[in-house]
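Researcher: I'd like a structural prediction for the single chain below. Treat it as a standalone chain; there are no partners to consider.
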Amino acid sequence: MKRIGDVLSTISIPIGAASDRPAAEPCYACPVCKDAGWVRLDVPVGHPHFGRLWPCECTLHRRELRLEEDKRRISNLDAFTHHTFDDFEPAAGTDAAFALTTAYAREPDGWLFLHGGCGAGKTHLAVAVAQEVQKSNGNVIFAVVPDLLDHLRATFDPSHGVAYDERFAMIRGAFLLVLDDLGTENTTPWAREKLYQLINHRYNERLPTIVTSNHDLRDLDERIVSRLLDRGLTRDVLIDAEDYRRRGRPDYVHSRGRPNRRGR
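Model: Treating it as a single chain, here is the predicted structure.
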């Protein structure tokens, strides 16, 4: 029987063979930042940007995709596939509004303020404009005002305002913004101020905007009303039409764009 030492002395064990093999290169989704999401610029010491972190192109791309998804979710124009000009059913009191909105869809410039009774066709015509403009410029947002404010509240955090700031800037800077049902929003101080900031920015920049409402102007924020009544920017369009949901009902009578119940 051999001693264990004699047996081990006959075995050749390569030293460092495993470490001599080169390590496998990690696979990164983004070779620029190696999936860190941030990069440092190649600038000399003393440059104002030396040592600062900047978002990588992959981070900017993800941010752009997220904002596009936000835009689609806020607008939800897919739910209005039948709100086109071809689908619009003309009625007494809608001719002027139809002509103005079709012309505006071809050349969106300035503001349109569509107002009148419920069911007069304001939303249909506003969505039809948005659908047409979107074919040539995808930067279009349609939003019911209370829903829009809910979207903004969902990301509002005073300590971490990046997501909110991005969303607000996206809405504020859209090529065409359609604000539907102005006056139905929850009139908290926060809501009033954010809505005013949004409208005031677009007013100052003269960005194409459509506003619809069935509320008396006296019920709206006077700062917003002041901008809606600027004849140098806004075309005021009263749609004096009967509620399309009640057309043909013999138990209703039309009066100045607001159907009134009779017979009871």
